[in-house]
C-alpha cells in the first residue's frame, strides 16, 4: 500500500480570529463559521488555501488541479477545557463552551478624506476570542519533503487564517504537533480519524526552522503618544461620555474569560496610516483634489473593501 503521513496539530489564536460564514443575521452583518454544536470552527479548505499560497514547489501536484489533491485537511475544531474537541452533538454545553455563545463584535466604518464617517458605511464583524485553541489533522500520501514543508509553513511568522489578516486578525501559533506514518494495511485498520485519539507510534515534531513566505518583507512600527491615545468605542458609561474599546481573552488555565482589556484596533491604526500616506504622496507629486492617482497607489498598498465603488 502507499505510505501515508498523518499529523495532528493544536494551534492557539494569538489575535482574534475572523472566519466568516458568508451569511448575515439580525444581530450582526458577518457572523463566524460554526460547527454542529454552534462552536467556532475553521474549515479545512481555509487552511489548505493559506498553505497553498506560500508553498514552495509544484502546488498543483500537491494540492490538486487536473488530478485530486494528495493532501487532506480536516476542519479545525474548538478545543474545550478538557483539551478535547467535540466531534459529536452535545446534549448540553459546559460553562466553558457557553462562553463562546456571545463572541466579541468589531465595529467598522469608512472615513472620508475630511476625516469623518462615510455615509452608510458602518458594518460589524463577529470574531473569535484571542487565546482560542483549535485542533485539526493533516494527511498526505508519501512525500516526506512536502509534508515537512507544510508543517514548517504553519510556524511562519506571517501565517494567518480567516479574513482581516491585514488588520490584526488570524495570527496563530502552533502549540503541539504529533505525527505518524502508516505503512501497512494493519496499521491503517487500527487508525482512527478522531482528533481525540492518540496517534500510534507517534512522535512530536520540532518546528524550529522559520520559513518566510514568498517575497516576504517585515516592517516594525513603534508608536508612542505625545499626550494620550483615544480609540473611542462610541459609547459612554456611568462615569464618562466616551469610553475606550474593550475586549476579553479566553484563558484555558482559568477556564474562563480574562478581565476586559483596552483594545487598539489594527484597522484604526491602518486607517490613520493610509490617510497620512495619501496626504504626503499627493503633496510630493502635486496631486490635488479631483485626481484619483493617489487613491490607486494607496489601494494597492492598504487594500479596500470588496465591491467598493468609490
From TrEMBL:
Keywords: Antiviral defense. Signal peptide: none annotated. GO terms for biological process: defense response to virus. Residues 10-173 form the CRISPR type III-associated protein domain. The keyword Lipoprotein does not apply. This is DUF324 domain-containing protein. It comes from uncultured Sulfurovum sp. The lineage of its organism: Bacteria, Pseudomonadati, Campylobacterota, Epsilonproteobacteria, Campylobacterales.
Amino acid at each position: 500500500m502507499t505510505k501515508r503521513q498523518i499529523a495532528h496539530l493544536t494551534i492557539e489564536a494569538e489575535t482574534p480570529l475572523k472566519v466568516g460564514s458568508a451569511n448575515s443575521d439580525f444581530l450582526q452583518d458577518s457572523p463566524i463559521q460554526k460547527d454542529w454544536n454552534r462552536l467556532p470552527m475553521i474549515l479545512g479548505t481555509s487552511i489548505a488555501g493559506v498553505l497553498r499560497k506560500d508553498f514552495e514547489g509544484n502546488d498543483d501536484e500537491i494540492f490538486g488541479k487536473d488530478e485530486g489533491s494528495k493532501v487532506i485537511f480536516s476542519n479545525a475544531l474548538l478545543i474545550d477545557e478538557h483539551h478535547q474537541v467535540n466531534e459529536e452533538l452535545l446534549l448540553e454545553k459546559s460553562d466553558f463552551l457557553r462562553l463562546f455563545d456571545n463572541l466579541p463584535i468589531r465595529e467598522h466604518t469608512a472615513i472620508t478624506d475630511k476625516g469623518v464617517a462615510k455615509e452608510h458605511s458602518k458594518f460589524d464583524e463577529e470574531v473569535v476570542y484571542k487565546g482560542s485553541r483549535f485542533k485539526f489533522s493533516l494527511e498526505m500520501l508519501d512525500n516526506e519533503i512536502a509534508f515537512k514543508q507544510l508543517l514548517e509553513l504553519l510556524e511562519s511568522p506571517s501565517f494567518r487564517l480567516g479574513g482581516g489578516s491585514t488588520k490584526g486578525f488570524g495570527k496563530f501559533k502552533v502549540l503541539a504537533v504529533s505525527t505518524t506514518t502508516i505503512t501497512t494495511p494493519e496499521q491503517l485498520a487500527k487508525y482512527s480519524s478522531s482528533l481525540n485519539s492518540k496517534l500510534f507510534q507517534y512522535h512530536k515534531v520540532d518546528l524550529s526552522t522559520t520559513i518566510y513566505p514568498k517575497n516576504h518583507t517585515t516592517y516594525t512600527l513603534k508608536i508612542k503618544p505625545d499626550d494620550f491615545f483615544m480609540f473611542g468605542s462610541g459609547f459612554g458609561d456611568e462615569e464618562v461620555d466616551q469610553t475606550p474599546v474593550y475586549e476579553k481573552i479566553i484563558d484555558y488555565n482559568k477556564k474562563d474569560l480574562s478581565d476586559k482589556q483596552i483594545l487598539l484596533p489594527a484597522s484604526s491604526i491602518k486607517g490613520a496610516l493610509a490617510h497620512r500616506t495619501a496626504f504626503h504622496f499627493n503633496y510630493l507629486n502635486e496631486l490635488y483634489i479631483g485626481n484619483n492617482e493617489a487613491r490607486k497607489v494607496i489601494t494597492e498598498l492598504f487594500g479596500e473593501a470588496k465591491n467598493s465603488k468609490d
